[in-house]
């Protein structure tokens, strides 16, 4: 069904007199793997916040997992969505352990309090950390981790509630080359897994787009430049218009590369 996971119609977001998003109409179907790309300040994070039911639009209509924002209890909706973003990482309480950070995703909360977790929860958290290549970090404090370790732990947390929708905001930002490639390959395996949730990932760089991504949406100055099947969107014409520089684009082994045309 068109837009059964996300259905945005004529969405606009304004804050303090500034237009962050305008005229965004976008549909995401179950099983899709989307990437949202665009330059700094294009509105990517704002759009992801709307998709996460964390931000209400100023205008337009938004349905997330079939529920209309403004007419649904977002506290029931949010646990169905896994999100990894810098905004979430900044709100992790000081001293929180990696295990507790992953476990508390079951309740869509940050900071362990008095909730009860059983052995199934513990095994799932440990298994996800292992699958993301950070099983050995389970007892560490999140605030002592490197940037690359934090990114992987956050993705494990986002997957913990077995979400129907997985949102990743710049998962590879701040990673060194080896860590970026490791993460892109892991995300590629996740994208290829038919049991994995519908995915939407935000990035500035087409090099960070994992193989297996099916669709792309390009944003510039709060508006959509192009959207659709990834190979129809990641063209020299669309990427040049989106980033405001003439770009040459290559594709090799399912990965994308862009550089200024000479
Ligand atoms: N309260 C606000 N008042 C005015 N402008 C705002 C406000 N909040 C955000 N903005 C602006 O909205 C624009 C979109 O921000 P957003 O974080 O969504 O962009 P982005 O594409 O994720 O950027 P980046 O790639 O740099 O992270 C930015 O230019 C930002 O400065």
UniProtKB/TrEMBL annotation:
PROSITE patterns in the cross-refs: ABC_TRANSPORTER_2
GO MF term list: ATP binding; ATP hydrolysis activity; transmembrane transporter activity
CC annotations in GO: membrane
Domain of life: Bacteria
InterPro entries the UniProt entry points to: AAA+_ATPase, ABC_transporter-like_ATP-bd, ABC_transpr_CbiO/EcfA_su, Metal_Ion_Import_ABC, P-loop_NTPase
The EC number(s) this enzyme carries: 3.6.3.-
SMART domains on file: AAA (SM00382)
Domain ABC transporter: 6-246
Family, as annotated: Belongs to the ABC transporter superfamily.
Protein's name in the database: Putative ABC transporter ATP-binding protein YlmA
């Amino acid at each position: 069904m068109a837009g059964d996971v996300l259905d945005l119609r004529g969405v606009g977001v304004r804050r303090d007199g500034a237009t962050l998003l305008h005229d965004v109409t976008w549909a995401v179907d179950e099983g899709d793997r989307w990437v949202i790309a665009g330059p700094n300040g294009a509105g990517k994070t704002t759009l992801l916040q709307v998709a996460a039911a964390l931000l209400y639009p100023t205008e337009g209509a938004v349905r997330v997992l079939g529920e209309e924002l403004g007419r649904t209890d977002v506290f029931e909706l949010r646990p169905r969505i896994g999100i990894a973003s810098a905004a979430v990482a900044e709100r992790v309480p000081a001293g929180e352990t990696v295990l507790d950070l992953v476990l508390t995703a079951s309740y869509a909360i940050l900071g362990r309090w008095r909730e009860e977790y059983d052995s199934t929860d513990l095994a799932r958290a440990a298994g996800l950390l292992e699958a993301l290549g950070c099983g050995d970090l389970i007892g560490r404090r999140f605030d002592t981790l490197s940037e690359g370790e934090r990114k992987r732990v956050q993705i494990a947390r986002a997957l913990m509630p077995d979400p129907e929708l997985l949102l990743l905001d710049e998962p590879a930002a701040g990673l060194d080359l080896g860590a970026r490639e490791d993460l892109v390959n892991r995300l590629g395996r996740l994208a290829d897994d038919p049991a994995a949730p519908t995915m939407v990932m935000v990035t500035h760089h087409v090099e960070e787009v994992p193989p297996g991504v099916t669709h792309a949406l390009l944003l510039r100055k709060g508006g959509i430049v192009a959207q659709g099947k990834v190979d129809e969107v990641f063209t020299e014409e669309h990427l040049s218009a989106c980033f405001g520089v003439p770009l040459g684009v290559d594709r090799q082994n399912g990965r994308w590369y862009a550089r200024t045309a000479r």
